[in-house]
Design a protein that fits this description.
3-stranded antiparallel β-sheet; 7 strands; binds zinc ion; alpha+beta; elongated
Length: about 120
């Protein structure tokens, strides 16, 4: 939605917005998308044990699975496909590191990947 006022200020970053800018409950589009991103990047500590890794010849996938009984969609933590490591060998090193952390310390892996852990 947009706001009727000609000029308004984002309550988050303070930037001046006009009539045609999107208004998200007081914040501008940019701040709103950052906010959505950070919500998406939150992982409950109790869910760390539900982290899974799937490795096949074409992909490496790290995710959180809530089980067949649950309505909650799996959360994707990290995903690489073969094209990525064929194009750029550095990607392979990142994958090896991620696998290593997955087995050594899942909490640390989530932190490295930029997730925040919440209670
Ligand atoms: Zn803003």
């Amino acid at each position: 939605m947009t706001k009727q006022d000609d000029i308004w200020n984002c309550t988050e970053c303070g930037s001046e917005q006009g009539r045609h800018d999107q208004w998200f409950d007081g914040v501008c589009e940019k701040c709103n998308s950052e906010k959505m991103e950070s919500i998406y990047m939150e992982i409950k500590k109790e869910d760390i044990d539900k982290m899974r890794i799937a490795i096949d010849s074409e992909s490496v996938n790290i995710y959180i699975e809530f089980g067949l009984d649950s309505d909650i969609e799996p959360i994707h933590i990290a995903y690489w496909i073969i094209d990525e490591w064929e194009e750029d060998a550095d990607v392979a090193v990142s994958i090896f590191k991620a696998i290593e952390w997955f087995y050594l310390d899942k909490k640390r892996l989530l932190e490295i990947l930029g997730f925040s852990l919440v209670d």
